[in-house]
Write a structure and sequence with these properties.
The protein has ten helices and ten strands. By secondary structure, the chain is α+β, with helices and mostly antiparallel strands. The protein folds into two domains: 106 residues, Arc Repressor Mutant, subunit A; 165 residues, Regulatory factor, effector binding domain (Multidrug-efflux Transporter 1 Regulator Bmrr, Chain A, Alpha-Beta Barrel). α8 crosses α9.
């Protein structure tokens, strides 16, 4: 495939991704490219293996699926946001992609990620791999908080609270523990239909209480099955890594997220706080999964 075709489609993919909530027809997209409708659609399919119209619709429905799970907005409002003319039209398209109605998808105990269309990646960068592990209950101590935010701001808020909580927990400590935990869960707000309630804890194992940590709560890392991913890099890149896990890795692996908290496990220098570099991190990231349901989805994907 010619490099200029890949570059063109890369730019177009980013442009589409930023406008999924806008009125966006195939004509609008091809006009942006500067090519004829027929020629642009041919280039797009040659590069991605999927037609331009199908890809755009599947990405819109994937965004709608996230909104269904993470907000309490009405189904018709979500459908209209992603430019479906009516609730019946949205329901038909959604069921065709996810094998569930929007209402059923919203209220299922676990989050079935199969059906989510990952953003197409041309760069060729390797997708993070996962390992299924079993964690036991672990008693922790630390800072606990919850806050509300809009869906599009959840990453920004989590990045800020993560840094703030590290300082609150470790400021004045005699020594940095070898492992710091971040536990968080996002739920649809029960009071604000267009927002999420985010629960976040920064914690350490209770055996490190002697280090004079600032803490105000007892926390439990719950036992269960988890998909473990590993991240090494700067702190700002961590949130993009987490988005990649949910938008791409979980759907491609056919994993089902069960109820529970995601767990961030940071490995430190075990030195003084001022010697630690919180913006260069090594982190194992654990997502709670249902192995039985994930196995069923993997079987469906193989058919």
């Amino acid at each position: 495939m010619a490099k200029n075709s890949q570059e063109l489609v890369t730019v177009l993919l980013e442009w589409i991704e930023n406008r999924l909530g806008e009125s966006l027809s195939v004509e609008d997209i091809t006009k942006k490219s500067g090519y004829t409708k027929w020629h642009m659609q041919r280039i797009f399919k040659d590069v991605t293996g999927i037609s331009l119209g199908v890809y755009t619709r599947r990405r819109r429905l994937s965004k709608a699926a996230v909104a269904l799970r993470m907000t309490s907005r009405s189904i018709i409002d979500i459908g209209m946001q992603y430019h479906f003319d009516s609730q019946p039209a949205f329901t038909r398209a959604f069921k065709n992609q996810f094998n569930e109605t929007p209402a059923r998808y919203r209220h299922m105990d676990n989050w079935h990620t199969a059906g989510i269309q990952p953003p197409y990646r041309i760069s060729g960068s390797e997708i993070p791999r996962h390992e299924i592990v079993r964690l036991d209950n672990l008693k922790l101590v630390g800072h606990i908080a919850s806050y509300h935010c809009h869906l599009e701001n959840v990453s920004e808020y989590r990045e800020k609270i993560r840094s703030d909580f590290w300082y609150l927990l470790l400021e004045g400590a005699k020594k940095v523990p070898p492992v710091i935990y971040g536990l968080h869960e996002v739920k649809a707000s029960t009071t604000r239909d267009d927002e999420q309630q985010v629960f976040y804890s920064a914690a350490v194992s209770e055996e490190y209480l002697s280090l004079d940590l600032n803490r105000h709560g007892d926390i439990v890392r719950e036992e269960g099955d988890y998909a473990r991913f590993t991240y090494q890099g700067d702190l700002k890149g961590l949130q993009n890594f987490i988005l990649l896990l949910y938008s791409t890795c979980m759907p491609l692996a056919g994993l089902v997220r069960r109820q529970g908290q995601d767990i961030e496990c940071y490995y430190t220098h075990q030195g003084n706080w001022h010697d630690m570099l919180p913006y260069e991190i090594h982190c194992d990231y654990f997502i709670p999964v249902s192995l039985a349901q994930s196995s069923m989805e993997n079987a469906d994907l193989a058919v």
